[in-house]
Design goal:
Number of helices: 6
Radius of gyration: 13 Å
Strand content: under 5%
Shape: globular
Helix content: 55-70%
Structural class: mainly alpha
Number of strands: 0
Distance between the termini: 37 Å
Largest sheet: none
Length: 102
């Protein structure tokens, strides 16, 4: 379980980028229900989720881990991880565009 999740910090970073929690969940490949648990300190982030949030919010994985209060090791930034993160971002953007078109 997370030690301390700074929901206000995450919400502020999302607002700065004009993004929603829904997009954040999609970018990390998680459900909105799982993200809600994270924001309530009832579920800890995985290393892959830390990396996805870092990519989405434009900060380091270490900063995400610190703000999330997780003991998850900071993920590596190898080429496969970067490609996966970019694919998640594209999927999140496509999902948000589809939602906005409805």
């Amino acid at each position: 379980m997370a030690l301390f999740f700074d929901a206000a910090w995450f919400d502020a970073r999302l607002a700065e980028r004009g993004l929603s929690r829904r997009v954040m969940a999609a970018a990390a490949g998680m459900s909105e229900a799982d993200l809600t648990l994270v924001f309530k300190d009832q579920r800890e982030l995985s290393a892959a989720e830390v990396a996805a949030f870092a990519e989405l919010l434009g900060v380091t994985a270490a900063e995400i881990a610190r703000q999330a209060g997780v003991s998850t090791p900071v993920p590596g930034g190898g080429p496969d991880a970067r490609i996966t993160a970019l694919e998640r971002r594209v999927a999140a953007v496509e999902a948000e565009l589809a939602r906005l078109r409805r």
